[in-house]
Amino acid sequence: MMGNRRLSLSLGLVIFAAAFIGVVSASGPVTTGDAGRTITVTDDFGESVTIRGVPQRIVSLAPSNTEILYALGLEDRIVGVTDYCDYPAAAADKPKVGGYSSISIEKVLAADPDLIFAAPGNTEEVVNHLRTLGMTVVSLNPETIDDVLKDIKLVGRATGQEEQAAACVEELQERITAVTEKADALAEKPSVVHVVWHDPIWVSGNATFQDEVIRMAGGINAFGSVEGWSIVSLEEFITADPEYIIANSGTGMTEGENDAIYDYFMTEPRMQGLDAVRNGHVSVIDANIIDRGSPRIVDALEEVAATLHPDLFGAATPKVTPVARSPGFGAIPLTCALLAVFLLRSRRQ
Prior knowledge:
CATH architecture of the largest domain: 3-Layer(aba) Sandwich
Order of helices and strands: HEEEHEHEHEHHEEHEEHEEEHHEHHH
Helix content: 25-40%
Radius of gyration: 20 Å
Number of strands: 14
Distance between the termini: 20 Å
Number of helices: 13
Shape: elongated
Mean pLDDT: 84
CATH topology of the largest domain: Rossmann fold
Strand content: 15-25%
Number of domains: 2
């Protein structure tokens, strides 16, 4: 997915790259008991991966992968993450194995993992190299919200956390349904644009998480005819005249204490005639929540729905999804959580 979901930004701005998901293969556990446990899964790129035993040393090569691992209570087994794995906060204390697209093979090997979760942005060369060195690698690459749910199940199966994964997915699906049932019944839906950057203006078109979030939340993507993440001209944006503008914020998208994209629309003279600006319908959303293929994409869905339809969903307030805790801290019913990954690169990190 990274290949067709990656943005290349001009003028020093590098924007997004991908996400991650997998589909579990039909083969099942061969035996009970950790030592004899052997399963085979198929990752998002069609690779058949055999996993023996229950992995105890896991390396995550993408922020979204890390968020899924924490959501399933696997933090005690994580022995390596990328420099950009920043959610939950505890992930910052894990040993680092390099950047998202600049993984250090040496550091990964030094972590001595028995399972690695990769993503397209790590590059095919790095993933193949790790496999040739005998590493067990599962690559995740979700393209839709449904893919994210499938990935959670895949990670759960690969790590022996099937019950936790099922509980997590069930909770997330209930939250999704609570939004879509109301949104689908709306007679009128506002036009919405999600802005990734403002100089030049980058928007989220079709085949993106953001487009899906807008539609499921009861909106119409003003640039739904645009392919993926694309640059649009000032004239095109003004002509589209969206009723709502959702501007990215978060890591790398701020200048000092200000939200650069939001400030642009609120201060740029040529934007003052837009419906969204005149009606106070320009809002900020954490880029890490709406751009990463992790469980927190559901947080983004709820937040956008509340922004577009406060009468149905209440005022929009950033949601903090609780993080599952591992058995090492005491077994707790999984209140699934989520977290964050990728579509973030140099400038943003």
